[in-house]
Amino acid sequence: MRISAVDWTHAFLKRYVKEGDVCIDATMGNGGDTLFLAGLVGENGKVYGFDIQKIALEHTREKLKKHGLYAELHLDSHEHMGDYVGKESVQAIVFNLGYLPGGDHALATRAESTIKAVESGFSLLKRGGVMSLCIYSGGDSGFEERDAVLQYLKTLDPKKYLVIVNEFYNMPHHPPIPVFLIKL
Fold it and tell me: What's phi and psi for 118, nearest 5 deg?
């Protein structure tokens, strides 16, 4: 049995997200997390999705339609989430850092905009809300974003945020790093 970073993240989020909640998929990609969140929040909840690539929006829309689910999708950077969502209204925010699987590797998340998005996300999260970051590095995506984001997370006030960094310790080739942040 193989457990992926996405499986681990979804298992963690299931403990925090329930019917009627508001959630954000900050980096839609191919729509897997948007679909997962939409299933958790049900008809009484709401999911917002963000991506800078039109193809990500199209893939996500198709995936949701196929499963009879809905999310409000935006062709915009994750650093602008606060323009669409009210402060302290969100239970969970999900990030997958790196590039769109199967997409243009030159279009990838970058440390500066990701850190701005995480900071913006803190103002959107309710107390007790959770943010997940699945940090992909190595190969095309490099290590700069990983290192900058992890360094930034060390600076967060432990009285305001719990930061949990997970490792797939015995996996080769720079496995993804699942990170969970809980607003205290």
Answer: -65, -45
Tokens standing for 10?
């979804």
In terms of DSSP H, where are the helices of 67-141? 111-124
10-26 pLDDT, tens digit per residue, is 999 999 999 999 999 99
Cα distance between residue 29 and residue 92, in whole Å = 17
- Which of 62, 131, 123 is closest to 97 using CA atoms? 131
Cα gap 118→113, rounded to integer Å: 9
How far is the first Cα of the chain from the last one, in angstroms, to the nearest whole number?
34
What's the CA gap between 10 and 131, in Å, rounded? 12
Global pTM reads 0.92
Give CA separation, 141 vs 104, 137, 148, in Å.
Answer: 11, 5, 13
The CA angle 41-45-47, to the nearest 5 degrees, is: 80
Rounded to 5°, the CA angle 8-165-23 comes to: 55
